[in-house]
Amino acid sequence: MRIGFSLPVFGKATATPGGVARYARAAEEAGAASLWVGDRLLSPVAPEVAYPGYDTMPEEFSIAQDPFILLAVAAAVTEKVTLGSSTINATQYQPATFARQLTSIDVASNGRLLAGLGIGWSPDEYNAVGVPMAERGKRLDDLLDLLEAWWTKDVVAHQGVGYTIPESHVGLKPVRKPPVYLAGFGERAQRRVAERADGWLPVWSVPEQFPAEALTGGLAKIRAAAEKAGRDPGALGVALRVNAGPGTEPELLAEAVKKIVPALDADHAFVDLTYLTSSVDEHIELTGRLLDLIGKG
């Protein structure tokens, strides 16, 4: 079983100068299969919509790094691991800049990028970037069109939602077209995965908050919809994020991972260590311990 881990994106560990690079090197050397980032622009004191399961926002989110920069750092100090996102709130970014950033990271990593995209849930963040939250679904569909053009055409022209790209030379291409995985549990989101994505980004929590059938059933629906749309359902991948709640014992976490990953037959799976560590050294130590408990695959 090949397991990856979250980079220190949030909390005290990510504020350590040079810490993310040190962790990325150590994780690859320890046998991690992949390294992942999340995306949190704001941690409002009184959020319009609280973080799921909280009255406000988790303390860890008050310190957050830029996901693109961390992917670039990891690309520079590793050679083999997949570099993924679960999830970047794609519709909160200017689309042309977003396309260029993803392309640059794929080139820097020699084709190791997995672009995991979503649309977010925070009205405060949408207000901060000046994007109407009600347009997020439409903007994601538009962005997927732009990425297809950006990665496959030498001259790109695009009339987007609120922006226009005139005929322009786009000479920088990814090493290979990055797979795009999409998040979402709603009907429209899962239909988009089935019709447009290379894979799905489900989330599992430890301790368990819902039965595994919620994920396996969702995946079955997505693959049925993909077949209905004329796509190969077996070609849709799964990149599973396992969220470890505060204080979760490594042994319990390892057993949960060994249970849920085979149930979904996930091609990528990673453990989010955000709530379990407060330093880079702890992040490195826990990564090694979990790899020993789970098996390096």
From TrEMBL:
GO terms for molecular function: alkanesulfonate monooxygenase activity. One of its GO terms (biological process) is alkanesulfonate catabolic process. Residues 3-261 form the Luciferase-like domain. Gene3D superfamilies: Luciferase-like domain. This is LLM class F420-dependent oxidoreductase. NCBIfam families: F420_Rv2161c (TIGR03619). Keywords: Flavoprotein, FMN, Monooxygenase, Oxidoreductase. It holds the Pfam family Bac_luciferase. The keyword Cytoplasm does not apply.
